[in-house]
């Protein structure tokens, strides 16, 4: 068995993995718009941004392999395609978004420079760190997370104890599903699949004497502890945003709202300090995403250094092209990609968490196929083709909440397992 100290260390590592600085801009505006239904959006947001990612880590603890293992039961070819799609999305959307957040929170308030200049300088530095692989960012990252957490806790506590505990009107048609869909934008379920394996490998290297069962128990305890921390931070930021309903204009941007709340609660100095910390944390995230993608491609080309560098260059070019746009635009552009890849990722996580007797190859294939098919209407709706498929969508349960894949995937799971049970009984 592992000591409590080891469990806490692993929990903090997992917390840091999911605690992307770019994600901090999402919860306050959710609460700001949800008003007195803030608890519903908090519940929805924490399902997709906390529970599912933590289940992804538990799936990794069970598999004790890499990202490729998550989808290989469908087929090795499908798994490889899935990996490429996930990495392509990662360097095209969440990585550039870190540059945009950095410009809006850390650069724009201080310098009258264009977002394109920020993006160019930002990703030149990212490229230099990616090709030179320095441990300095790991060291900085370990210091940044505690510092940001302390400031955020101060903001939340100051708001709860010093501001009127009242809320505005809800603007969401469905607060719960809006919270779930906004949780997609954290990319944390994808992060669990992509980077979770790194945590497993690290534990295997440090604790070679431990058996499979002990490691799995360690990761499970640490995972739930990290999840509790994420839940408290996200829920705190959501209720903070909800309590600020009279302090800002209704159309305020996500980054401006977070900055404005920090100024109102802690003053300009603390707000500036938060902006600097968030910018540095965003940079470490971008370096991690580009490095991880380059490592994956390198592995596909027999550890080719050339493949690694070319992938890093492509990742940084995409970062510059997308990173010059504002955060709101990048979030809007990400919606179609997330409406397609996130449901697949969620069902892969859930299937890998389940006992093997309920998650055979046949079950994987049936559930993933149903998820892909019934995600298509949601995807088409997200790119403005909702009217074209309106006749089909009205017959799909939950499609009006952009989650039409949920019940078909569940039905496919039940039917596939029923067929297997029937075949076993015959034999």
From TrEMBL:
Keywords: Amino-acid transport, Cell membrane, Membrane, Transmembrane, Transmembrane helix, Transport. The chain crosses the membrane at residues 7-26, 38-61, 73-93, 113-131, 143-163, 183-203, 224-244, 272-294, 306-323, 329-351, 363-383, 403-420. It is a multi-pass membrane protein. InterPro entries: Brnchd-chn_aa_trnsp_Livcs (IPR004685). It is found in: Cell membrane. It comes from the Bacteria. Belongs to the branched chain amino acid transporter family. This is Branched-chain amino acid transport system II carrier protein. It comes from Croceitalea marina.
């Amino acid at each position: 068995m592992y000591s409590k100290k080891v469990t806490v260390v692993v929990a903090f590592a997992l917390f840091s993995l999911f605690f992307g600085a770019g994600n901090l801009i999402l919860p306050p505006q959710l609460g700001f718009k949800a008003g007195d239904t803030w608890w519903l959006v908090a519940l929805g947001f924490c399902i997709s941004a906390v529970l599912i990612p933590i289940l992804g880590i538990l799936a990794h603890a069970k598999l004790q392999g890499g990202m490729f293992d998550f989808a290989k039961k469908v087929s090795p070819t499908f798994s490889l395609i899935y990996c490429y799609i996930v990495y392509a999305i990662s360097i095209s959307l969440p990585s550039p978004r870190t540059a945009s957040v950095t410009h809006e929170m850390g650069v724009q308030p201080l310098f009258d420079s264009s977002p394109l200049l920020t993006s160019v300088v930002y990703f030149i530095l990212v490229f230099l760190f990616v090709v030179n692989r320095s441990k300095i960012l790991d060291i900085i990252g370990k210091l940044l997370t505690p510092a940001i957490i302390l400031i955020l806790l101060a903001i939340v506590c100051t708001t709860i104890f010093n501001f009127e505990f009242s809320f505005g009107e809800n603007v969401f048609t469905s607060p719960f599903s809006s919270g779930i869909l906004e949780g997609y934008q954290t990319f944390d379920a994808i992060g669990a699949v992509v980077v979770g394996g790194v945590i497993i490998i690290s534990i295997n290297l440090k604790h070679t004497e431990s058996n499979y069962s002990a490691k799995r128990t360690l990761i499970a305890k640490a995972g739930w502890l990290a999840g509790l921390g994420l839940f408290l931070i996200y829920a705190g930021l959501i209720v903070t945003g909800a309590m600020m309903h009279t302090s800002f204009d209704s159309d305020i941007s996500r980054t401006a709202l977070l900055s404005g709340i920090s100024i109102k609660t802690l003053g300009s100095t603390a707000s500036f300090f938060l902006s600097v910390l968030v910018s540095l944390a965003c940079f470490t995230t971008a370096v991690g995403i580009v490095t991880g993608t380059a490592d994956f491609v390198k592995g596909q080309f027999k550890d080719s250094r050339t493949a690694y560098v070319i992938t890093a260059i492509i990742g940084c070019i995409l970062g510059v092209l997308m990173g010059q746009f504002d955060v709101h635009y990048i979030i809007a552009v990400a919606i179609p990609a997330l409406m397609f890849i996130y449901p697949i990722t969620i069902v892969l996580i859930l299937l890998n968490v389940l006992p093997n007797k309920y998650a055979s190859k046949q079950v994987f294939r049936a559930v993933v196929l149903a998820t892909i098919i019934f995600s298509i209407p949601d995807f088409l709706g997200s790119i403005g083709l909702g009217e074209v498929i309106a006749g089909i969508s009205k017959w799909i349960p939950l499609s009006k909440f952009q989650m039409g894949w949920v019940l078909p995937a569940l039905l496919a799971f039940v039917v596939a397992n029923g067929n297997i049970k029937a075949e076993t009984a015959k034999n």
